[in-house]
């Protein structure tokens, strides 16, 4: 591993602190057994009225719904809140679940600031070959609609 970014002092200072700790931007936790779980990226957090909402947490809950095949959550710009969670949903074949039903499904499981405020249905969630959600493409799709 390099000790710094090549010709980029600012990026080095943002990533490696004065004590030499590398800040990857990953968010995670330790369980009781000492195992590490990475759950999201700091850059992907949705900033809702001063709260931080992890899209991966909401996606994990959404895909547990029996009528949902896949889901992705991105920030939607909002004048009052800053950003609100918006879900892109791929329904299972034959499903007719509504956005309101999904919002209620999530609202029963999370704190009020984590609730999904908007829902859009699409045919496929864009993903990289690694399976990572391409949120950038979803944000571009949203921008073209605004």
List keywords for this structure.
4 helices; 146 residues; two-stranded antiparallel sheet; single chain; alpha+beta; 2 domains
Question: How would you sum up this structure in a few lines?
Answer:
Helices cover 24% and strands 29% of the residues. The protein has helices spanning 9-15, 55-62, 99-107, 135-145, and strands at residues 26-30, 36-41, 46-48, 51-53, 68-78, 82-91, 118-121.
Give structural notes.
It contains four helices and seven strands; from the N terminus they run αββββαββαβα. A hairpin with a 5-residue loop joins strand 1 (26-30) and strand 2. The N and C termini lie far apart (42 Å). The chain folds into two domains: 9-39, no CATH class; 44-144, 2-Layer Sandwich (GMP Synthetase, Chain A, domain 3). It is globular, with a radius of gyration of 18 Å. Helices cover 24% and strands 29% of the residues. By secondary structure, it is α+β, with helices and mostly antiparallel strands.
């Amino acid at each position: 591993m390099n000790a710094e970014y090549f010709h980029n002092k600012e990026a080095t200072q943002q990533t490696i602190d004065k004590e030499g700790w590398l800040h990857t931007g990953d968010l995670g936790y330790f369980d009781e057994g000492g195992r590490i779980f990475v759950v999201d990226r700091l850059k992907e957090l949705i900033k809702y009225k001063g709260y931080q909402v992890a899209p991966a947490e909401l996606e994990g809950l959404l895909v547990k719904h029996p009528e949902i095949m896949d889901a992705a959550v991105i920030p939607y710009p909002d004048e009052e809140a800053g950003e609100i969670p918006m879900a892109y949903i791929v329904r299972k074949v034959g499903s007719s679940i509504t956005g309101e039903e999904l919002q209620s499904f999530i609202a029963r499981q999370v704190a009020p600031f984590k609730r999904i405020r908007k829902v859009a249905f699409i045919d496929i969630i864009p993903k990289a070959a690694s399976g990572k959600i391409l949120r950038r493409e979803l944000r571009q799709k949203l921008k073209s609609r605004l």
